[in-house]
TrEMBL record, chain A:
InterPro entries: Galactose-bd-like_sf, Invasin/intimin_cell_adhesion. It comes from Subsaximicrobium wynnwilliamsii. GO terms for molecular function: hydrolase activity. This is Glycosyl hydrolase family 16. Gene3D superfamilies: 2.60.40.1080, Galactose-binding lectin. Keywords: Hydrolase.
Amino acid sequence: MTKINNVFSKNHWAVLLLFFAITSCERELSDEAVFAEFPANGDVFTDAFSAGLDYFPFVGEGADPEAFSVVTDEVFEGNAAMRFDVPSFGNGFVGATFNTTVKRNLTGYDALTFYAKASQAATLNDVGFGIDGDINNKYLTTLSGLEISTNWKKYVIPIPDASKLIGEAGLFWLAEGASFDGDEGGYTLWFDEVRFENLGTIAQSDPAIFSGQDLTQQSFTDSSIIISGLTQTYNLASGINQTVTTAPSYFTFSSSDTGVAIVDELGVISVIGEGTALITAIIDGVEARGSIQINATGGLQSAPAPTLPQANVKSIFSDAYTNATEIDFAPGFGGSTTETALVGGAGDSFLSYANNNFTGIIFNDTVDASALTFMHIDVYVQEAGTEVGIQIRDIGANQEIETNQFTGFPDGDDKDYRTDLTNLSVGQWTSFEIPLAGGIANQKNNLGAIIITGGPNFILDNIYFYTE
Amino acid sequence: MSEIKVTMKHNHLYKSKMKSIFTGCIAIISIGLLSNCSSDDTQTVTTFDTLIIEDNFDIDGAPDPNLWGFDIGDGSDQGLDRWGNNELQYYTDRTENVKVENGFLLITARQEDFQGSNYTSARLVTKGKFDQKYGRFEARMRLPYGRGMWPAFWMLGDDNDGVDVWPQIGEIDIMENRGQEPTIITGSVHGPGYSAGNAVSKSFILDGARFDTDFHVFGIEWGPNYINYYVDNKLYNQITPADVDGEWVFNDRPFYMLLNLAIGGSYVGNPNDETNFPQTMLVDYVRVYQK
């Protein structure tokens, strides 16, 4: 992905020059001073890679780079098609993006279309466009659960708002694999005539945030909330209402009171004052279903002050103690959706988690808890029913976190203890004393990480190992 | 046929349900192509230009009572339970279902419990107020969308004060649409021996556009022994006595117009949870011409 970088800078200069012209001469733009535009070529793969297109398998995430090939023995039209061999369960997955070296201007199109067939009826995990590291996948668009039949058939992925796609490099991506034993795998997928088209039949825009729900959330100053459940739905010529998952940047968000909450283009709501604010969104002039009302009540109260002496404690995250190790609280695990932030002021800081599926706190140095018996943690939640899963991991003598990628359980010399933090009180801190039990009862001299699941939104403080 | 200069538009898409309908025209089209290949490729779509009546829906409120009446209910009062097609709506004349606003007639289908039905809508008829034998009948409309929507602009023959019954009176469907097919409309005739599922029909498919996002003109030009069907500036079908498997009942009586938005039933299928309500059919104008 790093090779895609040299074109945008050219455009940068065009913008700067224009700005200069406006400010220095105070004249109207002349007809000649048009913005440089990227080519409007809509072709992705017809009989060959279109101009500048390249293949980038998700090798880092475990995708099989050999799974893709261009074939001539099974095509819809012309003389070549794309082929993906989806491995059987446990043998990796098909995952790749097809990006161009020269970005494309896709504003004249309304859909990505392709013909596809599979060697057996299959449900494609994800397919779409907009993976573009240069712009942080700003316009990522994903169709999940697309059913592919064993005959060549045309599929349509509507563009949420094409006016945004003035310079897009990520033209096509997919991820498909057997995600459990018994899920389809060991079969073949073919794609042909992959291109952006202006069908003229993509209509009845029906965007949504928070999956169309109108939410209310108690919040506090300096916290942030991620807008989730972002989708755009269009009615296709086939009569189908086709929903795609969209990146936040297709939306324009607004706050009814910008003294209480503001929203950035990545869909992050920052609470900045006390009061009430309603957050809504539009795509291309169409109001999205769903909203969130923020009721902000000032700053977050402090967690209960720890009382144990420092000598009894090896601290991971607490303002009350000297910490035993540096930590990485945003490890960026592949597939993690978690947004973690350090909030609050000096001497009274918290770890705030939003949209969590799984993440972790990685210890820079392992902690020897042989003489310790419990882990303390304080949790603050704002939504009833929130539960947080905690896995205390001993990473063993080899000092490496080893996890079975299919089961999620410790591998090699790793051990862990898992527990769920439940019955959390809304709007106040709940303290837990977790025994160092289970798999780590007799192996806790190399504690290296705390894996955190569930939520999805919660705040943590005062994480430390101790003995009474 | 000779008065219709037909040259094939390259983007004129159609599918024929009745192969025989068009075979008679092929030869003429070919001649047209040969003789007119140097001229422009526009069709002569209509030839009846004497305006008889028009409603441009310029006065807000209820539709003009001098032209439009209403069929009310679920069909049982008319002896047509569920309007003969298992339709789900209860027709009313309430402003929630029908009104003129900002230059358009709005017929709105709603999902609501009403008089034992789950949906309400409206059906306007010119019966007893306006009918005419032969002529050009057209309306400019924007259709609703979604599974189960069945908008229609159509005509029925005068029933001679109840003496004659359908299908003997004849039915000319200028435009019918299934809401789940936003690019397709169908024009049909029904008569004795060729009614309901055996109607003589042909569909017209819009290329790169939809009937629910913009206005389109749906019309027929009807004369002795022929009915021509058009959408916008495209003539897509002609039905003559040779095309129908029974008596041609379109030379002997005047016909009146109907505009309605039905919901569900045997023609279109019922709405599902993807169907958005309410749905509104907009009519910009209705015009009738004579030669």
